[in-house]
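Typical record was shown:
=====
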Amino acid sequence: MLHEVNFHDKPSVLRRKLVSLLAGSSCSKSRLVASVFLVAVALVAFIGVIVNQQDSQNLPEAINGAVKHHPEKPDENGVTITEEIVEVMGTHVFVRRATPSEQKDFCLSVVLLHGAAFSSKLWQNFGNLAQINCSKSRLVASVFLVAVALVAFIGVIVNQQDSQNLPEAINGAVKHHPEKPDENGVTITEEIVEVMGTHVFVRRATPSEQKDFCLSVVLLHGAAFSSKLWQNFGTMSLLASKTGCPVFAVDLPTGSADAGRLTQPADIAPAFRGAFLTSLVRHLAGSTRVILVAPSMSASYAVPMLVQQSATVAGLVAVAPLLSESLTDEQARHLSALKVPALLMFGEWDGRGRKSTESLVTRALPRAQVKELPEARHAAYVDQPDKFHKLLLKFVSKVISNQHSAVAQNGDDDEED
């Protein structure tokens, strides 16, 4: 069913239309709107709503065409909070949903909006999502709550009174204001960018002091993981702080359905994965050369990009790369002629990863460094994070240093000419 929302409607009419959209609309593909603002309304549903304070943590999950994360365990109130992104009239809307452990047979839904200086995070931090009791006469309704940050039309200018809670639009991406820098002086932000018709979720780590010469590091992931892995393990912060260069962690559109990815799912054929990653990297890093880190399935994106855009890729790190039939003999011959630095790793207990690594070295990357991580399975970086980080940081730092020296040498040669 189609619903039309006119932002000049009376507030009561607008609220009814928005609630109807949230309750019944299905999602379809469309373009992400560039500029954003937050609707200034706080909706209280039902007589006698009593709000108590409780804070909780969360991860996303996907319902009715929305991109969502798997939740953490229920909090002490038995409430589970999830996050999702739904599409409404061509606009991508971020939603938090609180679900009680036991939902009553009769329920109403409560929709919490917010003022211009705030976001849906307010209601989660204050505990509104964790516990609400609704009663009228003897009727008690257990409720789930949806906290909405509504994205609006291009060109809208936001009067920001509290920048800690307001998203902003940059280069067509929905971007959240960062938290304070971590103990390494690294700030991590999140954004959604559009690549070949697919909306891709990206985490960006920015060091407090960026070096004059930098490469960008792009972290991909295996089918069972998402970009959250690299943030939780401290990989993003480590690389950004030690190299002084920006680091990106990407949620790829392919992989396991329960991996907790925020990117819009898409079935991208292996033949187009190199072009997809190339387009994404150009959007994120511009003309800056990149180092790709590609575990398992994600090698089917990184290796074809290396074939197609070897001038863009300054280095490749692959962990138990699974390419199946996507690497042709012609591509393998092309790769074997390249001199792009490569580091290949696999776990001691990962027979499949060992075999795929040996095959890639034999067919396409004869000059690659090969490292076995002891007592590690397929996701060797999970079993041996310290050893993985040590090898990764050493490789990335060396590639950046060598590239810097080469650029400086070329500059000296130009001056002499």
Observations:
- The first helix runs from residue 11 to 24.
